[in-house]
Design goal:
Helix content is 28%, strand content 27%. The chain has six helices and nine strands. Strand 6, helix 3 and strand 7 form a beta-alpha-beta unit. The longest helix is centred in the middle third of the chain and has 17 residues. The N and C termini lie far apart (45 Å). Bound molecules: guanosine-5'-triphosphate and magnesium ion (MG).
Length: 217
């Protein structure tokens, strides 16, 4: 598990971050999963560090951004948090089309939500970008006493389908920054014009020292 924390501007920082940022890479990430599995709660925990016992059900989708500092670069996620209610299903392609990453969420206390997560994975494999990075999150790990999906089941399915897998808890923050960081690590960071399907390099920031020199004289 990565030892991760937030910096002064609220960015999620990973252990080993040297501080001198050279490039910013931007990726579109979409959260999918059955209603009430905790998609919005995971995003709010990741982006704002907050958790609400009575999180409202998402209507349509919500958009948030958050960055992770990794290997001397900043990975900026443009996050689409979709609504899990079935009546919004037809909107989903609008959000996963063009996404470089997805976190498919289920609730470890609901076997049905695990089956729904598998069908989201199949839909992504069929219809999303072929190189999309997919992570599977077994959320509400704090309710392990009521679990209907064993850790091994989730891990086995993820392994068979080449997915990142973690059990998470938006409530306790377990593995929340870690799963986004694991996605960030797996995303290709290409800077050449030949591969525009990879990251968008949006800014050359330079180290603090370099920035100072640029302003000077
Ligand atoms: P939709 O927007 O309807 O698709 O739901 P969602 O997947 O965004 O779920 P949401 O984040 O709204 O969470 C649903 C309920 O589960 C809320 O009451 C949350 O407080 C609760 N919840 C979310 N994550 C966790 C968790 O990790 N542990 C526990 N115990 N409850 C959680
Ligand atoms: Mg929601």
């Amino acid at each position: 598990m990565a030892d991760a924390r937030r910096n002064k501007s609220g960015q999620a920082r990973s252990a080993g971050d040297p501080g001198g940022i050279s490039q910013i890479f931007q990726f579109k990430l979409v959260l999918l999963g059955e209603a009430a599995v905790g998609k919005s709660s995971l995003v709010l925990r990741f982006v704002k560090g907050h958790y609400y016992e009575h999180q409202e059900s998402t209507i349509g989708a919500a958009f948030l951004t958050q960055s992770v500092n990794l290997d001397n670069a900043t990975i900026k996620f443009e996050i689409w948090d979709t609504a899990g209610q079935e009546r919004y299903h037809s909107l989903a392609p609008m959000y996963y089309r063009g996404a470089q990453a997805s976190i498919v969420v289920y609730d470890v206390t609901s076997a049905e939500s695990f089956e729904r997560a598998k069908s989201w994975v199949r839909e992504l494999q069929r219809q999303a970008a072929p190189n999309i990075v997919i992570a599977l999150a077994g959320n509400k790990a704090d309710l392990a006493n009521h679990r209907q999906v064993e850790t091994e089941e989730g891990a086995k399915y993820a392994n068979e389908n080449g997915l990142i897998f973690m059990e998470t808890s938006a409530k306790t923050a377990q593995n929340v920054i870690d799963i986004f960081t694991a996605v960030a690590r797996k995303l290709p960071r290409s800077t050449g014009p030949a591969d525009r399907k990879g990251a968008d390099v949006i800014h050359m920031a330079g180290t603090a020292e370099e920035q100072k020199k640029k302003k000077c004289c």
